Amino acid sequence: MNGNDLLQKGQDWAAWFAIPYVKKPNSDPEFRIYFSKEWYEALHLSALLEEKDGQLWQLRSNASSLVDASTEETKS
User: Fold this and answer.
1) 46: exposed, middle or buried (Cβ count in 10 Å: 0-12, 13-18, 19+)
2) CA separation, residue 60 to residues 47, 52, 63, 64, 71 (Å)
3) Residue 7: partners with Cβ closer than 8 Å, 6 or more residues away
4) Does 42 fall in a domain?
5) How many domains in the chain?
6) How many CA atoms lie within 13 A of 60 on its CB side?
7) Contact criterion met (CB below 8 Å) for 30 and 15
8) What is the separation, in whole angstroms, between the first and last Cα of the chain?
9) In whole angstroms, what is the distance from residue 54 CA to residue 48 CA?
10) 59 in any annotated domain
11) What is the pLDDT of residue 23?
12) What pLDDT does residue 73 have?
């Protein structure tokens, strides 16, 4: 997906293409929230939860494979 695709989907992205030209984006009402400690912490927590969810999925997948293998051995 490129910039033109994003702009065609909605005007919500237009401001993000202007951010390199905003003198103080951390003071701009459009972007101020993204420079706050609360937003950073929420983003960090979200990334950690995503990582843990992936690890949990992998563990469940491995456990399922072990149970399947054990079941096959029992049948033999």
Assistant:
1) exposed
2) 20, 12, 5, 6, 16
3) 13, 14, 17
4) yes
5) 1
6) 6
7) yes
8) 51
9) 10
10) yes
11) 94
12) 66
Structural domain of 48: 23-75
Q: Which residue has the higher pLDDT, 50 or 1?
A: 50
Give the model's pLDDT for residue 76.
61
Q: Is residue 8 part of a domain?
A: no
Three-state SS at 76: coil
Kindly tell me the sign of the dihedral angle through the C-alpha atoms of 61, 64, 69, 70: positive
Q: Concatenated DSSP letters for 6-67?
A: HHHH-GGGHHHHHGGG-S-TTTSTTTGGGGSHHHHHHHHHHHHHHHHHHHHHHHHHHHHHHH
pTM flag (> 0.70): no
Q: What pLDDT is stored for residue 7 in this prediction?
A: 74
pLDDT tens for each residue of 17-62: 889 999 999 999 999 999 999 999 999 999 999 999 999 999 988 8
As a residue count, the chain comes to: 76
